[in-house]
Write a structure and sequence with these properties.
- By secondary structure, the protein is mainly alpha-helical.
- It folds into two domains: about 120 residues, no CATH class; about 90 residues.
- Helices cover about 55% and strands about 5% of the residues.
- Strands 1-2 form a two-stranded antiparallel sheet.
- Strand 1 and strand 2 form a beta hairpin.
- Helix 1 runs parallel beside helix 6 and helix 5 runs antiparallel to helix 6.
- It is elongated, with a radius of gyration of 25 Å.
- About 10% of the residues have low confidence.
- Belongs to the NUP186/NUP192/NUP205 family.
- It holds the Pfam family Nup192.
- It is found in: Nucleus.
Length: about 220
């Protein structure tokens, strides 16, 4: 999925593809190709990844429907799948800068917001960050919300009614910004995971299993 359509699904699928590539790279790296079983498994992975038929490859591709032939008469499959995988990555990264809505300067709270976000501590230690299962440092929305509420209470007696309404709206937008910041950071990490895994399978294939592929010069050129 594209970033603007379903970002959460896109993040999940990037990680799934990354792990699949890692598993395939590991299989290529450790398999003993003197065994016919492991040799055919490596051939299947290489054929799927690079779109080139290897020697005596007659098994069905793991990415194709049963009964679909791998080889054409020229010995090539369709387009190189490794290159197709790069199209999944959007090289214009999502915005992960701390450019939050510029609506706070008139309310004398911008410096307070900056102080909260500059504190790198996690919510357990008085900050507003946490680490996800994948190791991404994200904004803890509940902790951030509590900080904003506390700030609002401290400023309550200093603001007019119109300023209170403006502050409430600004804080609401800050929470939306924090949610978007988290998603963009997660997507950036997912894209890096995908690219790292992509480079691993290419490196292993070229350094250890290139002899199993035909048309090696053309493959390297691509």
């Amino acid at each position: 999925p594209k970033r603007n359509n379903n970002q959460a699904l896109r993040i999940s699928m990037l990680h799934e593809r990354a792990w699949l590539l890692k598993i395939q790279a590991l299989a290529l790296h450790v398999s003993d190709i003197s065994s016919s079983v492991y040799r055919e498994a490596c051939l299947a992975i290489l054929s799927d990844a690079f779109g080139h038929c290897a020697e005596n490859m007659k098994n069905a591709s793991m990415f194709q429907s049963p009964g679909t032939p791998i080889c054409t008469s020229s010995g090539l499959m369709n387009r190189n799948k490794v290159l197709e995988l790069l199209e999944v990555v959007q090289f214009r990264c999502p915005d992960t800068s701390m450019k939050y809505p510029q609506l706070l300067s008139n309310l004398r709270v911008e410096s307070k917001i900056e102080e909260i976000l500059r504190n790198s501590a996690t919510s357990e230690f008085g900050g507003v960050y946490y680490f996800s299962e994948r190791g991404d440092r994200l904004i803890d929305l509940d902790a951030f919300h509590q900080k904003l509420i506390q700030m609002s209470q401290e400023l309550h007696t200093q603001l007019s009614e119109s300023e209170k309404g403006e502050l409430k709206e600004s804080f609401h937008r800050m929470l939306k910004w924090a949610w978007r910041y988290n998603k963009n950071l997660e997507e950036q990490a997912a894209q890096l995971h995908m690219l790292t895994s992509w480079s691993q399978i290419v490196e292993v294939a070229v350094s250890r299993r290139m002899s199993l592929l035909e048309n090696r010069s053309q493959l390297l050129f691509e």
